[in-house]
Write a structure and sequence with these properties.
globular; about 25% strand; about 30% helix; eight-stranded antiparallel β-sheet; 17 strands; Uridine Diphospho-n-acetylenolpyruvylglucosamine Reductase, domain 3; alpha+beta; Alpha-Beta Plaits; five-stranded antiparallel β-sheet
Length: about 350
């Protein structure tokens, strides 16, 4: 174990002995997400650097404190990317967002519609548990897991199970061609159109309805993108304007997000008709993700999502007393508690970050 790991391990062991809560912190760009922050800050940025990058194998491994921008820059030089487009929440070049923080938060951007979620790209992790021990799960190839996939369990766990020391993620080539098309459509027709396109072999990599305007991004081979543009029609959004639009959706700098009302994230079946909720909405992922700025109470929002067959998360702002994440059924909560107990016996890591009693 190197000096930095040894130092981290000793801090964890001491916290476990004294049952002192630790708040795992990288760049802090996603501190707003989840329940209230608790515990003594444990800075993970000392563990930084790209451990291995094999472009021909489509895999990159980096330490938790590595800046996400550094990882993405290294991949761009080799014509590759993280296709799920993890948000930095800050300028992509100067943001302090870390690689480990991105995995722990488990958030995906516009590309999730076609590429899949962050957890789908996790190949392996090295973590430190609540005993100060270093554990490895998974590896650096796609078919390396038999049984329960602990690696992907870490994605979105918000640091409640352990410190993600390193992670190996699958990379993909940057598309040869891209085009963004815009249409004037009301919400109901936009949802219908997205689902109609979703049933056809079109290279749609992202979509966003932002109040009477529907934008879609086509990505892939030049010929396929050209053919899809001719088939779909719409108004072409060129170059820098297209990049700024999708980056604004990814980083939540689009004007839709400039709103003081609490921001809810509703995950529902893509065919769900317009949700009749107070406030303003932005629709992504072919209709499956509904962002909602609203002062409606948590019960109203969650009930609307539940009726649609989905769930709702209080993403930013608002009163967290009602819980940030959808309440779990007793059986699922039992599994969460047992996992927490197994990885973090003294409950020192990010106490209450996901659910108040975990």
């Amino acid at each position: 174990m190197d000096a930095e790991l040894e130092k981290l391990s000793e801090k964890v062991r001491e916290a476990a002995r004294s049952k002192t809560g630790l708040r795992l912190c990288g760049g802090g760009t996603k501190d707003f997400y989840g329940q209230a922050l608790e515990g003594e800050v444990l800075d993970t940025r000392g563990l930084s650097g790209i451990v291995a990058y094999e472009p021909s194998e489509l895999v990159i491994t980096a330490r938790c404190g590595t800046r996400l921008a550094e990882v993405e820059a290294a991949m761009r030089q080799r014509g590759q990317m993280l296709a799920f487009e993890p948000p930095h929440f800050g300028d992509g070049v100067t943001s302090f967002a870390t690689f480990g923080g991105a995995v722990a938060a488990g958030l995906s951007g516009p590309g999730r519609q076609a590429a899949g979620a962050l957890r789908d790209f996790v190949l392996g992790v090295k973590i430190m548990d609540g005993r100060g021990d270093v554990l490895r799960f998974g590896g650096q190839v796609m078919k390396n897991v038999a049984g329960f996939d602990v690696s992907r369990l870490m994605a979105g766990s918000l640091g409640t199970l352990g410190i993600i020391l390193e992670a190996s993620l699958k990379t993909l080539p940057i598309p040869v061609a891209e085009a963004t098309l815009r249409f004037e459509l009301p919400e109901d027709r936009a949802i219908e159109q997205l689902n109609r396109w979703g049933g056809k072999p079109l290279p749609i990599s992202a979509s966003a309805w932002t109040g009477h305007d529907l934008a879609i991004r086509l990505s892939g081979a030049a010929a396929a993108v050209r053919e899809a543009c001719a088939k779909i029609g719409g108004e072409r959004v060129e170059g820098e304007n297209a990049w700024q639009f999708w980056n604004g959706i990814r980083e939540q700098t689009d004007r839709f997000f400039s709103n003081d009302a609490p921001l809810w994230r509703l995950s529902v079946p893509s065919i769900t008709p317009p949700l009749k909720l107070q406030g303003t909405q932005l629709i992504e992922w072919g209709g499956a993700l509904r962002w909602l700025h609203s002062h409606a109470d948590a019960r109203t929002v969650r009930e609307a999502a539940r009726r649609a067959g989905g769930h709702a998360t209080l993403f930013r702002g608002g009163d967290k007393a009602a819980g940030v994440f959808q309440p779990l059924a007793s059986a699922l909560m039992k599994i969460h508690r047992e996992l927490k107990r197994e990885f973090d016996p003294q409950g020192i890591f990010n106490r209450g970050r996901m659910y108040p009693d975990l």
